[in-house]
Write a structure and sequence with these properties.
The chain has 164 residues and is α/β, with parallel strands linked by helices. Helices cover 29% and strands 29% of the residues. It has helices spanning 18-27, 63-66, 71-74, 91-105, 149-163; strands at 2-11, 40-49, 52-61, 80-86, 111-117, 139-141. It is globular and about 50 Å long.
Length: 164
């Protein structure tokens, strides 16, 4: 069985739920307490497939880093990028889309997916209009309920494994 190590970088504005998504994926836990990430936090989780194992090194970047050009330095050596936006704050999608368009024009062969996070708020009438049909995303997720969190990380790991 082949085994690979893949660095994955989570990008997104402050408060979109990158840390909560990572915690849900790695530890199956969620906390309502908001704690802003300072710098970068790295977690690891292995995913086994019938044809190999992928050890994901998940780099959770602070939203402040994402708002500057510093995030490009953290992308070095990455196999994939997970972009996260908050469905309750449409402006977090716009910045993410700018960055993903820039990544698309670079020569970097990164596997990318966008997650629309906080789907647990979709039924709340204050937020339901923000799940905009014009926003393109791969998975509608909820770090709180775990909806599509494992599926998103697993699909990216599978894509990376099959591309090697």
């Amino acid at each position: 069985m082949r085994k690979i190590v893949a660095k994955i970088v989570l990008l997104g504005s402050v408060g979109v739920g990158k840390t909560s998504l990572t915690r849900q994926f790695v530890q199956n836990k969620f906390s309502d307490e908001y704690q802003s990430t300072i710098g970068v936090k790295v977690d690891k989780k292995s995913i086994n497939f019938s044809d190999g194992q992928v050890d994901l090194l998940i780099w959770d970047l602070a939203g402040e880093i994402f708002q500057s050009d510093l995030f490009k330095k953290y992308l070095q050596g990455s196999s994939g990028v997970i972009g996260v936006y908050d469905i309750t704050r449409p402006s977090t999608y716009e910045k993410l889309q700018e960055v993903f368009n820039e990544l698309d024009t670079s020569n970097s062969p990164l596997h990318k997916i966008i997650l629309a996070n906080k789907s647990d708020l979709a039924e709340d009438e204050n937020y339901s209009n923000y799940i905009d049909r014009k926003h393109t995303y791969k998975f509608l997720t909820s770090a709180k309920t775990g909806e599509n969190v494992n599926e998103a990380f697993t699909e990216l790991a599978r894509t990376i494994l099959t591309s090697i």
